[in-house]
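2024-03-11 09:14:02 INFO worker-7 job=invfold-0412 stage=load source=structure_tokens
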């Protein structure tokens, strides 16, 4: 089942409702929408309301309104549509001018991809854009969508990009692993690690002079202690870039990451590199090994 509301670090995504018609009127008549998506001929509030009602009534179309947690002003939308002329669902995004260079579209689109149910993740998720929309192409490439072909949509020639279900699932698992250690809002919950990893998973911290090798329990317990006893506070660690390679039922993901927090009351920042090895068991990807090294 698709969630009606999704939370990210900075944003709230909620399903489109009829009272959003004024914002939709503004968005579909913005310069970026008219140039790259097209004129929907929405000229009045009544037109906008009818447009929104049509979207809500269609079970093959989902729109999420994207808002910052800091205020109640909509910034844009994320869409998920099963079109008659495309084999798979396609994901889309549109934001008002002024909110297109701060990472909101990437953050919101990633969040929607992470919560898609298996009924939609049958093989891949598509995205379509025009070759003139360089910002859209750049964002799709950052999300690791790959160009497939040109397609005709409603009489327009579009570029079709795709992201495989395997890549989506591996991305979700990786981000969930990083999130295990976040205590910025609440005490971390480590139980999901046993669903994310194989029972025999090994985790290795490498430095210039030695390597610390852990199993799941020996890795989690000391981190549980410092993340809950006040030693390490406001800690967060997150992926900043990645490369994923999948061959059959095995995969490798190289992650660049950043981290920050308060250690014994002193603020710190760091960055480093992680390699994740994955294997697919009974159709489900799991982490088999992790090795990481902090930058000095």
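2024-03-11 09:14:09 INFO worker-7 stage=emit residues=296
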């Amino acid at each position: 089942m698709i969630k009606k509301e999704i939370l990210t670090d900075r944003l709230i995504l909620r399903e489109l409702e009829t009272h959003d018609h004024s914002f939709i009127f503004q968005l579909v008549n913005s310069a970026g929408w008219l140039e790259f998506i097209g004129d929907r001929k929405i000229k009045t509030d009544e037109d906008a309301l009818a447009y929104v009602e049509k979207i809500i009534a269609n079970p093959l179309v989902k729109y999420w309104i994207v808002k910052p947690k800091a205020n109640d002003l909509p910034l844009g939308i994320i869409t998920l549509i099963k079109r008659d002329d495309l084999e798979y669902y396609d994901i889309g995004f549109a934001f008002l001018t002024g909110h297109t260079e701060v990472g909101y579209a990437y953050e919101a689109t990633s969040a929607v991809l992470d919560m898609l149910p298996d009924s939609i993740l049958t093989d891949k998720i598509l995205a379509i854009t025009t070759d003139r929309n360089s910002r859209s192409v750049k964002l799709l490439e950052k999300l690791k969508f790959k160009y497939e072909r040109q397609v005709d949509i409603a009489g327009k020639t579009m570029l079709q990009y795709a992201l495989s279900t395997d890549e989506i699932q591996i991305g979700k698992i990786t981000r969930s692993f990083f999130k295990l250690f976040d205590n910025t809002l609440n005490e971390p919950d480590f139980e999901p690690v046993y669903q994310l990893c194989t029972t025999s998973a090994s985790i290795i911290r490498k430095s210039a002079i030695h390597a610390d090798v852990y199993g799941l329990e020996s890795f989690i317990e000391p981190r549980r202690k410092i993340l809950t006893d006040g030693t390490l506070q406001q800690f967060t660690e997150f992926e900043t870039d990645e490369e994923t390679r999948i061959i059959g039922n095995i995969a490798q993901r190289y992650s660049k990451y950043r981290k920050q927090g308060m250690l014994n009351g002193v603020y710190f920042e760091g960055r480093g590199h992680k390699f994740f090895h994955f294997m697919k068991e009974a159709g489900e990807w799991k982490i088999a090994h992790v090795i990481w090294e902090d930058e000095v």
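2024-03-11 09:14:09 INFO worker-7 stage=report msg="The CA atoms of residues 30 and 96 lie 7 Å apart."
2024-03-11 09:14:10 INFO worker-7 job finished
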